[in-house]
Amino acid sequence: MRKEFNFDLSTLNTFRMKVRCACYVEYSSVEELASLDLDSLPGPIKHIGGGSNLLFTSDYPGTILHSAIRYIKYVDLGLDEVPVVVGAGVVWDSLVEELCSHGLWGAENLSLIPGEVGAAAVQNIGAYGVEIKDLVSGVSCFDLQEKRPCKFTVGQCGYGYRESMFKESGGRYVITSVLLRVSRKPRPRLEYKGLEGIDASSPAAVREAVISIRRSKLPDPEELGSAGSFFKNPVVSAAAFVRLCDAVPGESVPHYVLDNGFVKVPAAWLIDRCGFKGEREGGAQVYERQPLVIVNASGDALPGDVLELERRIVATVHEKFGVTLSPEVEHI
Ligand SMILES: Cc1cc2nc3c(=O)[nH]c(=O)nc-3n(C[C@H](O)[C@H](O)[C@H](O)COP(=O)(O)OP(=O)(O)OC[C@H]3O[C@@H](n4cnc5c(N)ncnc54)[C@H](O)[C@@H]3O)c2cc1C
Fold it and tell me: Rounded to the nearest whole angstrom, what is the distance from the C-alpha of residue 120 to the centroid of ligand 1?
């Protein structure tokens, strides 16, 4: 177990914000986590993974917990549906790479998503028509309230679009491992726009195609700090959608009508139409290739730069289209 005080978090958030926490604890087993006297640590307690969906808005006054539970256990490689138990601290993309190299199908469309396995199951990560919930069978946790291990079936995880019961629980459950099921039988999922016609002869081939598409669109966190999509795609009423269209007469607004009659509009389009592509605020910038992403362009952007750019985008989109954007990235 590693415990440090006044700890530098700049390599533990992909936005590369230079912030510190009062205390940092990294544990490598459920037993170590269970042995922690949380009440003796500076509060509040926050568990993080790779910090790729977070914006630290200042130094953190409490304790940051981080999992170094890192194992990948194939329960029975002889089955068609192979159960795999994975420690929460495993880097998600290294797991995908390994599964693909074993010829196991299921996770390849989720290639190159930053972060760790525990958080992937919290966030219900998704890309190219697949979500992690399609692979999850069960989740093992440590209940910080009851101070004991517990398990959930996938049905109990409350999965929805980037949603889960874990997110709603306010940090009560620390995920310690995830049980996934991957397939020996070919199971390519190529319906999503952009994947038609790619080489789908193996999961590794699909992974390669997904990586190449992602690299052309999204910043590489190793080179340019960001937390991926900064805003959620807003869902508006039919009447609000008509008002939105009235703001851009003669133009067709990209949209998707949901089953309940509400309309989902791409936030990237709204931000782009407000002229924000490439816009800067201090060291922060709206990414040129994808306006949904805010990047740490200078490498030393301050949290305040990102917050000010966010504020301007939200205000301008609201003024022009009457739609209020909300952040996808968790502010801490
Ligand atoms: C360039 C880029 C591209 C991205 N593309 C995608 C994409 O295509 N699809 C997508 O879905 N997301 C995408 N993301 C967002 C991000 O990668 C995911 O949300 C990812 O799952 C976050 O993982 P993390 O380990 O970094 O978690 P963090 O950001 O550290 O934490 C996320 C949340 O999970 C909680 N948490 C972390 N670990 C645990 C644990 N063990 N137990 C309980 N709670 C925990 C944290 O408290 C926090 O609330 C992208 C991000 C970047 C930077």
Answer: 6
One domain, residues 170 and 231 = no
CA distance 28 to 151: 19
Angle at 133 between CA 256 and CA 130, to 5 degrees: 50
Protein residues whose CB sits closer than 6 Å to any atom of ligand 1: 14, 46-54, 67, 88, 113-116, 118-120, 122-123, 125-127, 166, 171, 174-175, 218-219, 221, 226-228, 330
Residue 15 belongs to a domain with what CATH number? 3.30.43.10
Q: What is the pLDDT of residues 8-21, one digit of tens each?
A: 999 999 999 999 99
Q: What is the pLDDT, as a whole number, of residue 207?
A: 98
Query: Which residue segment(s) compose the domain that 12 sits in?
Result: 2-67
**Judgement on whether residues 250 and 195 belong to the same structural domain of the protein:** no
Query: How many angstroms separate the CA atoms of 218 and 224, rounded?
Result: 10
Across the chain, mean pLDDT equals 96
DSSP character string of 99-155: HHHTT-BSSGGGTT--SBHHHHHHHT-EETTEEGGGTEEEEEEEETTTTEEEEEEGG
Indicate if 207 and 78 belong to the same structural domain: yes
Structurally, how many domains does the chain consist of?
Answer: 3
Residue 219 — very low, low, confident or very high, per pLDDT cuts 50/70/90? very high
Q: Looking at 47, 67, 87, which one is the last position of a domain?
A: 67
Within this chain, do residues 132 and 199 fall inside the same structural domain, yes or no? yes
Does 118 share its domain with 32? no
pLDDT of residue 192: 86
Check whether residue 198 and residue 145 sit in a common domain.
Answer: yes
74-85 as b/e: b if 16+ CB within 10 A: beeeeeeebbbb
- Considering the domain architecture, whether residues 63 and 76 belong to the same structural domain is answered as no
Are 78 and 63 in the same domain? no
In the annotation, is 168 catalytic? Answer: no
Using the atom order of ligand 1, give the atom closest to the CA of residue 218. 1
Q: Give residue 161's pLDDT.
A: 86
CA of 110 to the centre of ligand 1 (A): 13
Query: Once rounded to an integer, what is the mean pLDDT over residues 17-32?
Result: 98
